Amino acid sequence: MSAERLRAHPELRTVLELDAQTYEELEQRAATSGKRSALHTLRATIAGGRMEIVNGTYAQPLAPTIGGEANIRHFFYGLDAVERILHAKVDSFVAGEPQFFPQLPQILAGFGIGNTVLRTHTRTEVSFRLEAHGPSGRPSARPWGIQTVLLGANDPATRAR
Predict the structure, then answer these.
(1) Position 12 pLDDT exceeds 70
(2) Is the pTM of the predicted complex or chain greater than 0.85?
(3) Residue 128: CB partners within 8 Å, gap ≥ 6?
(4) I want to staple 58 with a disulfide (CB 3.0 to 4.6 A). Which of 54, 78, 81, 103 is the partner?
């Protein structure tokens, strides 16, 4: 959603899912341009409550292939960059299958990210079940205190309007 559309429609809110490396690039360009930058507009939109930054990874890793420590580093460096550059805290993780891995709930909880939307590309007519287990080992609707929503490709909430 463009900044122009947000200005034209004050009732709209949006989320932005980019890697933190992109925000570093915006910061470098703003420092050299000497004029009002996209970074300034982005900060103002976030501070005004019109946009939420989600995910918070440094890049957009294929999480199952890089291993636990590398995933933690992506969050560590990414969340730091978001706070430092955008003056924003990441509260939500919105991702598709390439970012799913078994330790994701614990890592998100450890970084204080309390909301998760896991989007799949599977058809919702096909039966599947997401069962998350909390620290006790029993199934939980809110493992590690994280509110999780699973959306399939054909769910009304994910269709283009």
Answers:
(1) yes
(2) no
(3) 120, 122, 152
(4) 78
